[in-house]
Specification:
Bound molecules: NADP nicotinamide-adenine-dinucleotide phosphate
Shape: globular
Strand content: 15-25%
CATH architecture of one domain: 3-Layer(aba) Sandwich
CATH superfamily of one domain: NAD(P)-binding Rossmann-like Domain
Distance between the termini: 29 Å
CATH class of one domain: Alpha Beta
CATH topology of one domain: Rossmann fold
Helix content: 40-55%
Structural class: alpha/beta
C-alpha cells in the first residue's frame, strides 16, 4: 500500500474501481472530506502511473484484481475498512464483461466486505437501470438487489450523464465539422453532473443517514439539456456558426436486427449486436427519472446536486489543449 499516514480518528473507506473516472474523483473527495480513502485498482502501467499521482496527492492505493477473489480478501485484510464504495463497471458493456464486473466482481466485493465485518456499502450504479433493456443494466440491477438484501447499510447512487459522455464531439466542432444528432436532436435530455460533484455526493452518502438504504437518482445543476442544445452551446462558445447533421437511431436497430441470427453462434456477433443496442438506447432514452404514472421522463423529478456546469467544462476543453476522455 502506498500513500498517506494513518489517522485513526477518521473513517477508513475502501474504493473499488479507483482507476475509473468517478473512482479517481471519489478517492480524492474522500481525502478532501477527511476520510482515509484507500483506492483499489488492478496493476497496469497506466494504473501504476495513476497510483503515483494519487500518492503525491496524499491518497493511498492498493493493487488487486477484482476478478481474483483472494486478492479482494487481501485488500480487506490489509485496509480493515469501515465502509466500501464500489465504482466498478464493465468497460465494454458486452454481456460477458458486464456479468463478470457489474455483477460478479461487485458480489465478490460484497461477500468479502461482509466476511470482514464491514458495515456500509455505497454503490455507483446508473439511472438507466430504471428502464433495463441492456445486458449491463440487468447485471447492475441483479447486484443492486443483492446489495439491498445484505445486512449492510447500503446506498445506491444512480447518476444521470457524466460530462465525459457529452464531450465526444468537442474535437469535431474545433475542427469545423458539423455536430452529429439523432433525429432532430431533441429525442433525449439529461442533467449532466461533473466527476467532482458526483464524487462529493457519493462520499456524502457515508455519514448522511438520509441517504442510507436509499436508491438515489442524481443529476447536476439543471435545467435538463438536449443534444441539440449541447451542440448549440459548443458552437457559441467556439465562436462558430452552428452546423448539425442528423442521423436516424433506427440505423442501430437495423444493424442489431441483421446481426441477431448470428448472435447465438458467435460471441463476437453477439457483442457487436449489444453495442448497437446500447447505441440505440442512448440515442433514444433520456437520462432523467422515469415517471411511471405519467409514462414519461421527468426533469422535475430528477434531483440536482453540485455547482459545476457543462458550459464551464466545454469552455475548459475548448480553451485548453486537453482532449476529452473517451
Ligand atoms: N458515462 C456516463 O455518462 C454514466 C452515467 C451514469 C452512470 N454511469 C455509470 O457509472 C459507472 C462508472 O463509470 P466510470 O466512467 O467511472 O467507469 P470507468 O471509467 O470505465 O471505470 C471502470 C472501473 O472499473 C474497473 N474495471 C473494469 N473492468 C475491470 C476488470 N475486468 N478487472 C478489474 N477492474 C475492472 C476499471 O479498472 P481499469 O482502469 O483497470 O480498467 C475502472 O476502475 C458505470 O457503472 C456507469 O454505468 C455512467
Amino acid at each position: 500500500m502506498t500513500g498517506q499516514s494513518i489517522n485513526r480518528q477518521s473513517k477508513r473507506v475502501l474504493v473499488f474501481g479507483a482507476s475509473g473516472t468517478i473512482g479517481q474523483a471519489v478517492v480524492r473527495a474522500l481525502a478532501q472530506g477527511g476520510y482515509e480513502g484507500v483506492g483499489v485498482m488492478r496493476r497496469s502501467a497506466d494504473n501504476e502511473a495513476l497510483a503515483a499521482e494519487l500518492d503525491r496527492d496524499g491518497c493511498a492505493v492498493h493493487f488487486a484484481d477484482v476478478t481474483d477473489r483472494p486478492a479482494i480478501a487481501e485488500a480487506f485484510a490489509r485496509a480493515r475498512p469501515e465502509a466500501v464504495i464500489s465504482c466498478l463497471a464493465s468497460r465494454s458493456g458486452a454481456p460477458r464483461d458486464a456479468d463478470r464486473i457489474d455483477f460478479q466482481a461487485n458480489l465478490d466485493v460484497l461477500d468479502e466486505a461482509e466476511a470482514a465485518g464491514v458495515r456500509q456499502f455505497v454503490l455507483l450504479s446508473a439511472i438507466c437501470v430504471q428502464k433495463p433493456r441492456l445486458a449491463f443494466q440487468h447485471a447492475k440491477l441483479r447486484f443492486e438487489r443483492r446489495l439491498q438484501v445484505s445486512g449492510l447499510t447500503w446506498s445506491i447512487v444512480r447518476p444521470t450523464a457524466f460530462f465525459k459522455s457529452l464531450s465526444g464531439q468537442v474535437e469535431r466542432v474545433k475542427a469545423g465539422k458539423p455536430f452529429l444528432l439523432f433525429g432532430d436532436g431533441e429525442l433525449t435530455r439529461c442533467k449532466p453532473i461533473s466527476d467532482a460533484d458526483l464524487a462529493r455526493f457519493i462520499v456524502g452518502c457515508i455519514d448522511d443517514p438520509a441517504r442510507h438504504r436509499c436508491i438515489l437518482p442524481i443529476g447536476g445543476p439543471g435545467p435538463a439539456i438536449s443534444p441539440r442544445e449541447q451542440g448549440a452551446m459548443l458552437f457559441e462558445l467556439a465562436g462558430k456558426a452552428p452546423r448539425f447533421r442528423s442521423m436516424t437511431p433506427g440505423l442501430f436497430r437495423l444493424i442489431a436486427a441483421l446481426l441477431s441470427p448470428f448472435a447465438p453462434i458467435s460471441d463476437w456477433m453477439a457483442e457487436k449486436r449489444e453495442y448497437m443496442r446500447i447505441a440505440h438506447y442512448y440515442a433514444t432514452q433520456s437520462m432523467l427519472v422515469w415517471d411511471v404514472e405519467a409514462s414519461e421522463y421527468s426533469e422535475d423529478a430528477t434531483p440536482e446536486f453540485g455547482r459545476d456546469t457543462l458550459q464551464e467544462h466545454y469552455r475548459y476543453l475548448l480553451d485548453s489543449h486537453a482532449k476529452p476522455e473517451a
